[in-house]
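Exercise 7. Given the components listed, write out the predicted structure of the assembled complex. Treat all entries as one system.
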Amino acid sequence: MALKVDYLVRETGQNLRRNITLTVAAVLTIAVSLFLVGSGLMIRQGVQNAFQRWEGGIEFIIFMNPDATEEQVQSIEDELGSNPQIKDYTFVDQEETYDEFVELFSDQPNMVESVEAEDLPPSFRVIPTNTDADFVSELGKNFEASAGVRRVIFAADSIKQVQRVGAWISTGVLVMAIVLLTAASLLILNTIRMAMFARRNEIEIMKLVGATNSYIRIPFILEGLVHGLVGMVIAASLLFGGRAVLSDRVLDLPILENFVVTVNETWVTVLVLLLVAIVVGTVGSAIAVSRFLDV
Amino acid sequence: MALKVDYLVRETGQNLRRNITLTVAAVLTIAVSLFLVGSGLMIRQGVQNAFQRWEGGIEFIIFMNPDATEEQVQSIEDELGSNPQIKDYTFVDQEETYDEFVELFSDQPNMVESVEAEDLPPSFRVIPTNTDADFVSELGKNFEASAGVRRVIFAADSIKQVQRVGAWISTGVLVMAIVLLTAASLLILNTIRMAMFARRNEIEIMKLVGATNSYIRIPFILEGLVHGLVGMVIAASLLFGGRAVLSDRVLDLPILENFVVTVNETWVTVLVLLLVAIVVGTVGSAIAVSRFLDV
Amino acid sequence: MIKLENVSKIYKGDVSALLEASADIQKGEFVFLVGPSGSGKSTFLRLLTREEVPTRGKIFVAGKDIGDLSKWKIPFLRRNIGSVFQDFKLLPNKDVAENVAFALEVIGRPKHVVKTQVPAILELVGLSDKAQNMPNELSGGEQQRVSIARAFVNRPLILLADEPTGNLDPATSVGIMKLLDRINRTGTTVVMATHDRGIVDTMRRRVIELDRGKIVRDQARGVYE
Amino acid sequence: MIKLENVSKIYKGDVSALLEASADIQKGEFVFLVGPSGSGKSTFLRLLTREEVPTRGKIFVAGKDIGDLSKWKIPFLRRNIGSVFQDFKLLPNKDVAENVAFALEVIGRPKHVVKTQVPAILELVGLSDKAQNMPNELSGGEQQRVSIARAFVNRPLILLADEPTGNLDPATSVGIMKLLDRINRTGTTVVMATHDRGIVDTMRRRVIELDRGKIVRDQARGVYE
Ligand SMILES: Nc1ncnc2c1ncn2[C@@H]1O[C@H](COP(=O)(O)OP(=O)(O)OP(=O)(O)O)[C@@H](O)[C@H]1O
Ligand SMILES: Nc1ncnc2c1ncn2[C@@H]1O[C@H](COP(=O)(O)OP(=O)(O)OP(=O)(O)O)[C@@H](O)[C@H]1O
Ligand SMILES: [Mg+2]
Ligand SMILES: [Mg+2]
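Answer.
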């Protein structure tokens, strides 16, 4: 049986207009839900951004003694330059280390104040050709005995731990986003269910007049889809607005600088919301309708 | 007109039972909403807990040179002990400073590794009798010129900045909780509104039979209250459960240690939820009902 | 008891459901409201219970002008008036006994009154064995009888019945009319809209005939046409 | 066209709405279903459209046993049967024209057919000027006529009417009966439950009388009693 497009458009439009109370309620519920999911996803993105700079390619660090002589530093540098297993390295002098330290711990000013540049060790940050843990560890140990070297630190022991903490936080926020998503789906399904309940007489009558299930279902499903999409647009506007306000005002606090979520990343979030809106709106309506069409 | 208790109880009970679809939908919506609000409040509590130990009574810190002699330290200590304007002070030696440093930056192992106890300055943490900023600053400056003292740091410059960051995060989470609360209220109001919409015929008939507004309203309001309370109980169970799981498993990661929210603090959150459930459930129903009773 | 003074009710789209209608119904009268479909009979009754507000004119019920009745007093007006609705208007989630009991509970009757009155009135309309049924489990005629029972149960001053025999077989109709007559003899004013020629012609009571909103006949001891 | 073989319908609480009923209605017949309130007339009709499933017995409609009809085929059964419901069952959020048009759209009739048929049938039941009204803006009789228009509009094989004149004045009733008669003459089988003695006695068609679920009379060219 052919379902005519104009029937669907008209029927859906009428349902939306004539049950304006329900329409507003459903759209609001979906908008709020999706806004919460979107916020969760964006916070997660922010946390990831903040941790990104810890995830560079540095594989081990050679810390010199703060009072190592220039010759000692030079000899290590020569060694690094001539070793074919070293892909790249950078020397970070005491001033640079201090700057990094200050930046890192700008939120702990008493720590910053307690340390001077000359207390901090200069270091080489080394990227080997091979990233295998054993290989890197072997390679790094070669430098441990050299004069002026205080300690060699491996990614496995340090950066990876930083990353682990980052992952923990990131996972926490992801869990939060998933909880919100589940909550949103539940809420949307509930909304549709209540909308169907409110119109149980209508559905009953349609069945009595000989309408097939698909004939009754499809306008309701389209209605769910429209609810989802309108809710999504509202949620997306709130997210973009929220992002703009936050990145203008709040995030110029230095420690939160890296937390900024870009407009592009916001778009990705909105895409996710669009998907959720379509899937939950359509599938949800379909399930809810079938529940009430079962004679 | 006397509203009989048994009428109210019976009427409310029947509404709940006979519109089971609506009841389940409303309770679920409220449970999810309150759970989200509760989570927001508990995260905020966690963040506050984590920052608490930075909010001690230390008003200024005298950092000694790492290589200050024992006599120099002793002379400062004598001075502190004899000054009537000093309420209390603690000496933190290099080992203790190192321990604190390690604990603080356990998430930045390469920093920890780069610093040894002897690099770090021992310090006096001083609590003056008067907390006025000018007074403290005057008092602290007296020690700046003393032998072996590297620097004096004031709360105004350091701890207050830490507190400020803590406040930022805390505010952020509070804003999140408020957004969730608003969202939850909206959702609950919507739910009630839809429930009323679904029963508009019933209300119409009651009015025709000569029921006064209060006679019609009160069962609906009680129904809203029951929805709110049941939803609250579900949300509270989820919060307690979630807290238990998290503090057992996730939070033994050292950095998150201070984040633990106690059972008592959870109870406070639940109390807030109870209040929200009662207010939103009752007031929401009252508003929703009056909207439909207006002839 | 009921007085209409030049009452008009114009619905949107310029439909004159009632046009310059005047009538004076005394306490204890029994009035048939007749007229073709759409002539304004239900509108006439709905104006008396303030379900509708007249576009023009004044309406008095029990001596009170109900035109300037404040909203919160409407329930109290309705308590003096029992209404049998053309489409029954039963509460779908209450059973038969509860639907009838509700009309008593609303006006604050004590429990023991409800407990004795409800079975008595259900007996009267012949629905004792359906007391526990829900409205959707009843036949059309049974629903109509529940609606009548509910309107009767609190012995109102005025009883308005909108085609109370429309869905009833002749035998049951006669029973219901006997009941209405009995109620009327106790002093209750009864206004009944009907299409049932047989009933009107047998009872020979006052007949008000409407045609396109106008009162075209007001006859004591009248017939259907 | 319609055949019942020892059909019983027992509702919960041991209510026998229909008891061992057998009947055979030929194509083109016009049958009145009479009997007191609650005797099972509506149940009889609801069994034919599979709104209810018989507790015992077999029902054939247009030669098909509808007892083992799979769920998805029910709509197609109903498209061959026009139903006028005792309580109208109009879609409350569609206006009169849309309510009628809906019955055509459901069975996939092209737009131009809908556009010409709907005004024609509204003209026939005398509701042309109410086409844009919503159901709650209609009088009881007008709603019943919309229900009749909707049942007629797709010219079904069978027409079931549950007290289609219950809310109509005698003049309109005669008009509706003339319409039903005309429809019947085009070959449509008509089964009509009614309490209207006048109509049954005037038309003199087959009468099936029910009493407490039993068929107590099945008479060609019968009268009401
Ligand atoms: N869903 C149901 N559950 C229980 N009993 C029911 C149900 N539907 C109908 N009945 C009962 O079955 C009997 C027959 O009902 P039915 O509607 O067929 O009567 P009817 O002949 O159409 O009466 P009326 O002329 O009053 O419309 C009645 O006693 C009714 O109470
Ligand atoms: N809410 C409304 N909006 C617009 N028109 C209305 C409304 N209610 C009733 N009407 C119109 O007013 C006229 C009178 O309606 P009313 O219900 O009073 O008729 P009635 O005499 O009771 O008819 P019936 O015998 O069919 O029940 C009808 O034409 C109807 O369509
Ligand atoms: Mg009427
Ligand atoms: Mg019936």
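Discussion: The radius of gyration of chain C is 17 Å. The interface with chain D takes residues 11, 13, 34-38, 41-43, 86-88, 132-133, 137, 139-142, 145, 162-163, 166-173, 195, 197-198, 224 of chain C (CB under 8 Å).
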